[in-house]
Design a protein that fits this description.
mainly alpha; about 110 residues; 2 helices; transmembrane helix; membrane; elongated
Amino acid sequence: MNWLGKLPGYQRTPYGVEVRLLRMLPSGLLAGVVLPACMSALARLVFNQGTSAEIEHNLQTFDFVMVGLAVFIWIASLTVAIGCVIVWLMKGPAYVADGYNVSDSDKPKI
């Protein structure tokens, strides 16, 4: 029995946006970590007004926002990657499914 019998006469669909998005994901993931880290480091230079406790509170809040942004970018990238892989697999070769004969499909039981 041939498990992976390709559908005769099937033509592969050319790749589209999904492959370009998959190739851009590593740089997007890197930017999603580096940019919030740089912004957090830059915040140490900007937040210098107020008491020591206020500055620490503002920096901690900003750091939490930057960590949240990085996690959001990673999760969004994972979601886009899953979607791209699904589209890429759907554009792959078509396979013939095995038929399953139903005993009473043409003659229903009464």
